[in-house]
Amino acid sequence: MMPLRRVGDPLTFALAMDSTHTECSPYSRVTKNIGRLILVGFIAMTLPGHSETKLGNEYKSEQLLPYLQATEWILYSLDPDPWLQDEVNDPFSRPAPLPGSDEAKKAASHPRPPAEPQRKVPPSQEFHEYPILGQLDMKETDKLRYVIKALDVAGQNWAGGVAGCFSPRHGIRVMKDGKTHDLVICYECSRAYLYVDGQDAGTLHFATTPQFQATPYPLDGILRRADIKRAPSH
């Protein structure tokens, strides 16, 4: 066995340790190479200066300034499900017929194509494709400022998680410098979409630790006091 060389850093040490082994077969060479990569990678992660790569959010705080500077707001209560539930044409709304039954034979001989999904309301009654249950025109208040600041704080401290759902129950619209700024918020999924003049302008992810997490309670309170219809809570 070769004598162990003095080395000056952990990576060189790992390579020096590796060089003391003899190669006896192609299999051992492959195994050794895999082990070396794992060992070197692990040690590299523990070296000073190593930091985990963190995903960046898909918005900038400056994009929320129009909401903080606006003097008039429109607050929307949204239905998170824009589609009608068609129990007549939905094949999953009732149990499947028993194999060999008359109903099963009829279904097999006369298959019915799936029905086209139907939206609950026309586009004029939607806010970025979600039905409007009610809306409230408001003057700017500290509570509305708090909502925006809370979203920004949560977004700046985003932990990197992204939910697969999007079920928004709240929307905000402001006008600033001749432009329309819209925010569609899903507190359930910790995500909000930003729009400027109807065009996508970014995504605000705000899944974070409890001390930074934004909640729907301020907006829910405003809607409740104004007797605005709200979607059932999740």
From TrEMBL:
Spell out the residue ranges making up region: Disordered.
86-126
Q: What is this protein called?
A: Uncharacterized protein
